[in-house]
What does this fold into?
Amino acid sequence: MAQLDTFWLISSYYRGEVAAGGIAYGGFELRRGSFAALALTTALVPFPIGGAQASGGEGAGVGEGLHLVPMNEVSVPIIDADRVNGALRFKLVLEARDAGAAAGMTAHLPELRAATVAAALEFARLNASGLRAVDAAQLDRDLTAALRTTEPGLSRLLIVEVAASRS
It folds into this structure.
């Protein structure tokens, strides 16, 4: 309700309905100078309308923590018509199901990187170009399928950076 009242006040101000003496609304008088302060305060103060949730819908429960394993940047060539046409670069963070799986992933990071590079080469060969945006959803599906066969403790794969450039 307060947001609607504030909206009404701001819209009446910009429609010119606020006279030189101010405007009386809801038992208080709002002068032209203090109106700008109200508008600025309203714009800067966040109103809690609803809770935000991360994408994926599979949040950790109460008392559980995130078990993240970062990987170094992966760069693979984009090959088109028997020529190197560019490079596909991305960074991943692996989310493990629990702390034991995260420790296992960290110990087997070279094998996970090899599976990542193999899947990325296939993706770059079939789906990537230096002239268009990378289909991050398809890349996510391909990499997740490849890494889950190598490491069953993988909960999900997070692509934190992705880019395709022309060479």
User: Anything to note?
Assistant: Residues 109-127 form the longest helix (19 residues). The longest strand covers residues 83-96. Residues 2-44 form one domain. The radius of gyration is 26 Å.
